[in-house]
Structures are given as C-alpha cells and as structure tokens.
Known about the structure:
Elements lengths: L23 H26 L3 H5 L4 H12 L3 H6 L2 H18 L1 H10 L1 H8 L3 H6 L6 E4 L7 H4 L17 E4 L4 E8 L11 E9 L4 E12 L5 E3 L16 E9 L3 E3 L4 H37 L1 E2 L2 E2 L4 H30 L5 H26 L1 H4 L5 H11 L6 H11 L7
Parallel strand pairs: 1-4, 2-4
Antiparallel strand pairs: 2-3, 3-7, 4-5, 5-8, 6-7, 9-10
Helix pairs in contact: 1-3, 1-5, 5-6, 5-10, 5-11, 6-10, 10-11, 10-12, 10-14, 11-12, 12-14, 12-15
Bound molecules: flavin-adenine dinucleotide (FAD).
Amino acid sequence: xxxxxxxxxxxxxxxxxxxxxxxxxxxxxxxxxxxxxxxxxxxxxxxxxxxxxxxxxxxxxxxxxxxxxxxxxxxxxxxxxxxxxxxxxxxxxxxxxxxxxxxxxxxxxxxxxxxxxxxxxxxxxxxxxxxxxxxxxxxxxxxxxxxxxxxxxxxxxxxxxxxxxxxxxxxxxxxxxxxxxxxxxxxxxxxxxxxxxxxxxxxxxxxxxxxxxxxxxxxxxxxxxxxxxxxxxxxxxxxxxxxxxxxxxxxxxxxxxxxxxxxxxxxxxxxxxxxxxxxxxxxxxxxxxxxxxxxxxxxxxxxxxxxxxxxxxxxxxxxxxxxxxxxxxxxxxxxxxxxxxxxxxxxxxxxxxxxxxxxxxxxxxxxxxxxxxxxxxxxxxxxxxxxxxxxxxxxxxxxxxxxxxxxxxxxxxxxxxx
Length: 418
Ligand SMILES: Cc1cc2nc3c(=O)[nH]c(=O)nc-3n(C[C@H](O)[C@H](O)[C@H](O)COP(=O)(O)OP(=O)(O)OC[C@H]3O[C@@H](n4cnc5c(N)ncnc54)[C@H](O)[C@@H]3O)c2cc1C
C-alpha cells in the first residue's frame, strides 16, 4: 500500500513495545536505566569489544567506570528484595532488559556479579551476606574444565544411561571444623578474574567419599589464601564480560562460609539456575530489541531504487517478524519472572523456556538485522556484527540451549501418566 494512502496510519509503541502503562516507579526505572544503557554502556561496550581481555580489566579501563556508575544507580540486592514480589519482578525485568539493550556482556557481568549477595540473602545467611555486600563484585563458579553441561545437570536427570559423571575437578572437604577447597573451575566463570567474592558450587567429601549430587555451596572471598586465577579468556562475543579460571589450593575457611551443605545442594543448584535463566530471558530480550531498533532506523535511512529500504516488502516483512519475536520474548520473560517471584514453587523449566526463547530470538533478530544492514552489517563501523557475536555466545552460556531443552523436556514427564 502506498505511504500516501489515507489508510496508512502509524501507531508508535513505547520503548517496551505493547507494554501496558508502567507504574511511576516502573517508568522511573526504565528511564534511568535506559539513560545509563545509552550513555554509558553502549559506548563503553563498543570500546571494550575492541580491547584485549587483559586491557578490558586493567586498572583505568572504562569497564571500571561503567561498573562504578552501575553501582551508583543503587539497584542493590537488599533494595530489590524489599520490593513486594510482583513489583520486584517488573523492576528486575525492566532493569535487565535495559542493561541487555545497552551491552549484553556488561549486563551479564552485573547479573552474575550479584549472585553471591542474592543467594546469601535469599537463603537467609547473614554471615555470607556480609562477605558479599552490594559493593563487591561477585561471580558464580559451577562449571569445570571436564564438566560443563554435567555440572548444571547436577541431579543427573539427563545423564546418558551408559554415562557416568566421572571425577570432579573441584572438591570441598567438609570434615572437621573447617572447609578445605581444592581444584579448579572452568575458564568460563563470568567475572572470574576480577570478582571480589565467589559463590562456589562443587562436589563435597563429608566423610563418605567425594559426592557430586551431595556437593556444597561455599561463599569464598577471592582474597582467601590459596585462591588464584588464570588468564582472562579471549572470545568471540560478549568481550566486555571478563571470564577466567579460578584455582583453589588448600583454601581453608570456617564452616560459616557454607551457604548450602550436601543435603541442600541440589535445591541450591535448582534455585540459582532458575533465577539465572529467567534473568537471561530479560537480558537477551534487550539485546534482541537493540538489534531490531538499529535495523528499523537503518531501514528508514538507507535508500535503494530511490526509496527507503523499509518500503521494499521483504525488508518490511523481515522487520515485522523481528518485532514480533522481540515482543514474544519480552512477554515470556515477564511472565516467567513474575511466576517465579510470586510462586512458592519457582519453575526451572519455565525459566529455561524464557532463556532459550530470548537467546534464540536475540541471535535470529541480530542475524536478520545484519541482513538488513547487508554489506555495512559485516563491518565494524556499524554496531550490528557485535550484537550478533554477543548473541551467539548466549546460546551457550548458563547451560547450552540443546541441553536445557532436553532437561526442560524431562521436567514435562508426568510419572502418574506413565
Ligand atoms: C558467555 C558465557 C558465560 C558463562 N558464564 C559462566 C559462569 O558465570 N559460571 C560458570 O560456572 N560457567 C559459565 N559458563 C559456562 C557454561 O555454563 C557452559 O559453557 C555450558 O554449560 C556448556 O558447557 P561446555 O561449554 O563445557 O559444553 P559441553 O558440556 O562440553 O557440551 C558440548 C556439546 O555436547 C552437548 N552435550 C553435552 N552434554 C549433553 C547431554 N547430556 N545430552 C545431550 N547433549 C549434550 C552440548 O549440547 C554441546 O553441544 C559460561 C559460558 C559462556 C559461553
């Protein structure tokens, strides 16, 4: 239909699409975080993307400037937990969508950064919470060099019938008055090289040999004697997110540092994975939205055949499918976070559905955006190829999507119907 038609009306949605009007607080959060995402995260994310991993975390790097400004915004764990659950759900969805819109690598750095504090607060452990105040940067160390997908399937739900977990790379000994940690975690630990405090999930030996299903969760100050770190990882996407190995050599801590013992280990894995996957849903909705908005703007500017390319049907239709997918990812992210924050039984497979949907959406939408930018999309002069690389990493982090889907499918099995 020609643009001059009387029927060609434009209906502009707000920044969060077909979102019912936000509360005053919701609007304030959205505007504040959006400003931070646009003015601080976007430009700094692009700079960090072009730096070496060592430069990203060196003193004076813009990473630290962005981190300082993020902390100053005041989205601390206690403040978030004081909100009533439904409001907390909306606030966290808006917060993490906007952060993901700014730079998904930095958004993951901030999300992973709060995990020791959040889990200590949620599990009601004041000693551990004091070790992980909001000002300290946290990390979550669960995967190991020999156990990626295995470690996130701690209950062995999808273990192959002919398979075996094998030797863990990191073990905490829980005999006696102290806990002693030995071994290492994978090079993939987000914030691993820079974190001040770590929430460590690992196998435990409480006297009956090393057990992987009856592991332990320990809050480890990263300056404890015997803790050391590897080199920051050089990778294709989310380069603003520092990652690296952590080594533990006879790290001796008092038993107060135990956040969850062998009897609570599987519940603690379930709880952190449920939270992390749900937040990933919001972050990568934001990354997808960023790619969509950039492509939409470009399609109005770029002319071919004497017309803005959005007037070509294939471009308009591609943009519409991108818009539709972003809306769907956001709707699911909201729904799942809301359900999990308000239900007495948060659902891991609901969280997995949001994580897979949002990350797959971010990758597809960034890929479509790149096609709309065409030749320009391939160059580093334009922002799309970075978002595309960042989104590619998201299909693997926090459990690769294939493995999450298998495990999610197993949660659908109803033994009463078999
Ligand atoms: C950006 C990013 C951030 C991350 N952040 C953290 C972090 O903060 N903390 C942390 O501890 N880890 C982190 N990780 C690690 C991440 O959780 C793992 O990479 C992920 O769980 C997959 O493990 P893997 O890479 O070892 O792959 P593997 O487990 O070796 O899998 C290899 C392949 O085999 C398939 N496969 C494996 N097991 C099965 C199975 N049972 N059934 C069917 N197929 C299977 C997988 O689908 C995959 O294609 C991060 C990773 C990335 C990319």
